[in-house]
Amino acid sequence: MGKPRIEEYLRIICSIIIDEMNQVYNGYDKEQLKEAADENFNELDLTVLMGYPFRHNARYTGNENKSKKSNYKGNYDLFIKTRGFKIEVKFLKNWRSEADTLAASKNWKPFLKDFNWLMNEIDTKGKGKVAFVIGWFNCVEYFSSMLQLGTGNGAYPIADENKICFFPFLMRQASPTKTRDLKYNYAYAYKELTVNPIGNHADIFNCMFLGSPDDKFHFAIYY
């Protein structure tokens, strides 16, 4: 019997985090959850939560990756030494920036960079050892409120096919599809989905969406 793959670990870990979030934020309405997402939680918090089950085997490499002296160069935040796992983590929110100014949805370019990193790692025989994990509080009506998925400016532009192909757990509510017409398809939750990005990569990869309408937190795991 082979060793567990990275997605097997991450499914368990992310499910536990969702359960913990449900307990911590029990009774919070959407507005209270938005405030908690903005004021009480950040990307480092999420990375630490994901690394905690690995205890001393987890190395948090986010700052090291920016150093020329680092042995952990790469586009990832978490390295599990005993397994050789590389995990990139992103936390989505759309409330306020660190400068305390109103922030729109996250810019697409850093996410595309992470997807390209994942695809390149998989192309070089990293399948089962690398993952890109996105986490967010279930506190806004539209997923596109947290991530720029449109073709241009405006409150609800036409959805960009080059972007939404990375999110197979979203379903269209209208045609032509505007970003506000993209809804979670909870029937696909906890199932292995195929991601087939538009581009030159020969290999497709997989995705798993974790969460339910009543959960306080959601995840998308790419591997």
Structure description:
This protein is an alpha+beta fold. It is 27% helix and 19% strand. The protein has 5 helices and 9 strands. It has helices at residues 6-24, 30-39, 43-51, 108-126, 161-164; strands spanning 58-60, 78-80, 85-92, 130-137, 170-172, 182-184, 193-195, 205-210, 217-222. The strands form 2 sheets. It has a 7-stranded mixed beta sheet with strand order 1-2-3-4-9-8-7. Strands 5-6 form a two-stranded antiparallel ribbon. The longest helix is centred in the first third of the chain and has 19 residues, at 6-24. The two termini are 21 Å apart.
List keywords for this structure.
9 strands, alpha+beta, 223 residues
In oligomeric terms, what are we looking at? single chain
Strand content: 15-25%
Shape verdict: globular
Give the termini distance in whole angstroms. Answer: 21 Å
Unreliable residue stretches: 64-73, 96-103
By DSSP (H or I, 4+ residues per run), the number of helices equals 5
What is the gyration radius calculated from CA atoms?
17 Å
Helical percentage = 25-40%
* Overall mean pLDDT: 88
Strand segment count:
9
Strands side by side in the biggest sheet: 1-2-3-4-9-8-7
Summed up:
The chain is α+β, with helices and mostly antiparallel strands.
Topology summary:
Elements: H1 6-24, H2 30-39, H3 43-51, E1 58-60, E2 78-80, E3 85-92, H4 108-126, E4 130-137, H5 161-164, E5 170-172, E6 182-184, E7 193-195, E8 205-210, E9 217-222
Parallel strand pairs: 3-4
Antiparallel strand pairs: 1-2, 2-3, 4-9, 5-6, 7-8, 8-9
